[in-house]
């Protein structure tokens, strides 16, 4: 067992708390009026909104989010938080761990 400390505490940006090969989790926070600059991920992802208010946008849907909202985003789906009206705090879970499916960089040939 491991206790994850400071999970869900507001701290601008993304802070990873735990990583195993099959799962990673962190806290993602965006200030009111801020911009979500993230790109699609190579892993499935779950957001649990613990504080704040915003809208969540994918190519097919936009929904209001607040504390208690749980969102599943499949790998590679474009998504972002928009219209952030209150400091937003989310717990984020990646399965498998974030960036484990990302292709390895191609090394330059001499």
TrEMBL record:
InterPro entries associated with the record: Cupin_2, RmlC-like_jellyroll, RmlC_Cupin_sf
A Pfam family reported for this protein in Swiss-Prot or TrEMBL: Cupin_2
Superkingdom per UniProt: Bacteria
Limits of the Cupin type-2 domain: 28-88
Protein name: Cupin type-2 domain-containing protein
């Amino acid at each position: 067992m491991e206790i994850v400390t400071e999970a869900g505490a507001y701290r601008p940006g993304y802070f990873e708390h735990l990583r195993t090969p099959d799962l990673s989790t962190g806290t993602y926070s965006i200030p009111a009026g801020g911009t979500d600059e993230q790109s699609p991920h190579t892993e499935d992802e779950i957001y649990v909104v613990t504080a704040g208010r915003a809208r969540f946008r994918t190519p097919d849907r936009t929904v209001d989010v607040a504390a208690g909202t749980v969102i599943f985003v499949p790998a590679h789906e474009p998504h972002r938080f928009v219209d952030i009206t209150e400091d937003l705090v989310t717990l984020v879970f990646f399965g498998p761990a974030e960036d484990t499916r990302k292709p390895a960089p191609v090394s330059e040939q001499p």
